[in-house]
Amino acid sequence: MAQQNTAKKPKTAIVPTRADDYPQWYQEVIKEADLAETSPVRGCMVIKPWGYGLWENIQQNLDARFKATGHKNAYFPLFIPLSFLQREADHVEGFAKECAVVTHHRLEPDADGKLVPAGKLDEPLIVRPTSETIIGEMFSKWIESYRDLPLLINQWANVVRWEMRTRLFLRTAEFLWQEGHTAHATEQEAIDETLQMLDIYKEFAENTMAMPVVTGSKSEGERFPGAVETYSIEAMMQDGKALQSGTSHFLGQNFSKAQDISFQNDKKEVEFAWTTSWGVSTRLIGGLIMTHADDDGMVIPPRLAPSHIVIIPITFKADDPDAILNYCHKLADDLGVLNYHGRNVTVEIDNRDIRGGEKTWGWVKKGIPIRLEVGPRDMESDSVFMARRDKSPKEKEGVPRVEFIETVTDILDAMQKGLFDRALARREEATKTIDSKEKFYKHFEGEGSGFVYAHFCGDPAVEDEIKGDLKVTLRCIPLAGHDEEGDCIFTGKPSKQRVLWAKSY
Questions:
Q1: Confidence of residue 1 (pLDDT cuts 50, 70, 90)
Q2: Residue 91: predicted pLDDT
Q3: Is the N or C terminus of the chain more exposed, i.e. has fewer CB atoms within 10 Å?
Q4: Structure letter (DSSP) for residue 148
C-alpha cells in the first residue's frame, strides 16, 4: 500500500498561493502590500502611498529619459469635444464603446429634492480615452513652418476607458499614464521617433523594472485605431501569460490630414506633418507584481523601490532604548547620503508600537529590498542583522555597520540583476518553437500558456479564428531574431518569419 504524503505545505504570507489561485493571489498581494484598493466609483481604484511611490519612481525614471531625447512636458484638457473624435473614423470606431460622455453642465433639485442633471450641453464632451485629437487640434495651430518641427510633447495625465471587467492596475475605468505626441517633417523622422521611444520603454523595463521584454510590431487587427504601425513591448508574467507593457505608434499622416496639421516646407510647399504617439500606464505596476512577487508578497527591484531599506529597532529588552534609536537614526543618516542610480538611498525607521513579527512580515509583504534589525547586541558590536527580500524571509546575517554601508549599493545591484536573471530564465523555460497547427492547438488548449514562436502568413481571418478557439493572440511580430522564412503552420502559405503568440492580460 502506497504511503500517503502527509507533508505540510510551507506557510506563506499570501493565501492563496500562485499555484493555488493565481488571479486571487494577485489581488491578495496588492492588498497585503498596501498598494491600492477598489474605489466607491465602479471600476476605479485608490492608489495608496506605497503603490503611488512606485508610480512616482516610474514617472521620474521615464521623464528623465524623455527629456534627454528632447521632449517637453505639457498638459491638455480632460474633456474632448465629440466632433474632434469624429474627424478620424478609425480612431472613433476603436474607442467608441469605451468612451465616458458628459452631456450636462449642472445639477438641479427635482420635485423630491434630489439632484438631477440639468443644463444640456450644445455638444457632448468625451472624457479623454487618449489625447490624439485634442493635441492634434493644438498642433494644427502651433505648426506653420518646417522650422517648427519636430514638435516633441509628452503629457502625464489620467484617462478614462469604460471597461466592463476591471482588475486593479491591469485594467481600470480610470488610470494614470503618460502619452507622448510628436510631429515631424518627414516620414523617416517619425518612424525613427516611434522606434526610439520603443527602445526607451524596453531599456526602462529591463534595466529599471528588471522585467525582460520582446519588442515587435502589432498585426493589422491589433494596431492602435488610426495608426499605420503599432509597436509594443511584451512581457511574460509568472503564469505564462503576456502583458502588453508599452506601445509606440507611427500614425503616418492619418491624424494630420484629419486635423489639418500642415506646414510650409523649405520650398514653400504645404505638406501634412508625420505624427507619432506612445505611452505606458499604471499597468506597469501590475506587470511588476506578476513578474516578481512571490507567495510572501511583493518583491520590488531596488531601482524602483519607494524605499530601499527599513531599519527595525529591537528595544523591548534594551536597558537604554533611546541609545538604540539614536544608533538607528545615525545609520539612516549615513546611508541616506549614498547615491544609488541617481537617487539617495532611502531609509525607513519602523519604531511603531507593535509586535516585531508584525513589523517584519509587513515589510516582507511590501517587498522592501533590505530589512535591518538592530538590537542591544548589534549596537554593542557595531553591526546590523540583515535580510534581503530576494531570499527566504528567515535567511538573515550579521554584518558590521561599516561594511554594510560600504557594500549596500553593490548588494542592491546584485539584487536587481538577480531579479532580472530570474525572470528571464522563467521566460526562456516557458518559450517554445512550434511547427504544426496540431501541436500549437494542443499546447494552448485548456490552461496551456507560455510564449510560442510559429510561422504565420498574416491572414486576419486565421488570426481571429485562433483567438476564438484558444483565446490566444498574436502578441507581436518580433523586430529581431526570428526572421527565418518558412510556411505558415495554419495555412501552408509562405511566411517571412516566426511571430510571437500567447494568451494575455
A1: very low
A2: 77
A3: N
A4: G
